[in-house]
Amino acid sequence: YSVGHISGAHFNPAVTIAFAITKRFPWKQVPAYVAAQVLGSTLASGTLRLIFQGHQNHFPGTIPTGNPWQSFAIEFIITFYLMFVISGVATDNRAIGELAGLAVGATVLLNVMFAGPISGASMNPARSIGPAIVSAQFKHLWVYIFAPTLGAVCGALVYNVIRFTDKPLREITKSSSFLKGVGNK
């Protein structure tokens, strides 16, 4: 978040693509952002490989523990949740912006606790591509490219459908007959 004011804190290609599809990020910048995200992940993975000279056959990336389609489904679901939360706290001006990092971090934590043992809980194609490149292990990498991207796009689209409006909350509550009726009783 320390570079949020510079880059929008885009660390995840799935999130960047979802923002572009929902017209909250310019398409012309997507290739450069995705390239930077994958390059950053690859450099970080390479740095860790140099620092920790452990077993060279140990793969630090994400791989399914069982059926790759099960991991695909899990990655889709948890990235959907993550993007839904990001859309709510980062793009809706009615949300409390100061708590965005806490909400996103808590979502990542819960996703990792639930899905980590099954799929590795990547939620981020760059997070999986970097270690795969450094280790030259690409088995089932498609799961971690397509599932998070589809999950993020669907999460952003669903949030936009239920958002209803960009009006501030105080304007919505003024016009809501339900809330007026509750206040009069």
TrEMBL record:
GO molecular function, one term: channel activity
Chief localisation class: membrane
Entries under InterPro entries matching the protein: Aquaporin-like, Aquaporin_transptr, MIP, MIP_CS
Keywords (A to Z) from UniProt: Membrane, Transmembrane, Transmembrane helix, Transport
Gene Ontology terms: cellular component: membrane
Subcellular location: Membrane
TM helices/strands, residue ranges: 32-52, 72-90, 102-121, 141-162
Pfam families reported for this sequence: MIP
Top-level taxon: Eukaryota
Extent of the signal sequence: none
Membrane topology reported for the UniProt record: Multi-pass membrane protein
Family: Belongs to the MIP/aquaporin (TC 1.A.8) family.
PANTHER family, per the entry: AQUAPORIN NIP1-1-RELATED (PTHR45724:SF13), AQUAPORIN NIP2-1 (PTHR45724)
Protein name (database record): Aquaporin NIP1-1-like
Protein's organism: Prunus avium (Cherry)
GN (gene name): LOC110746849
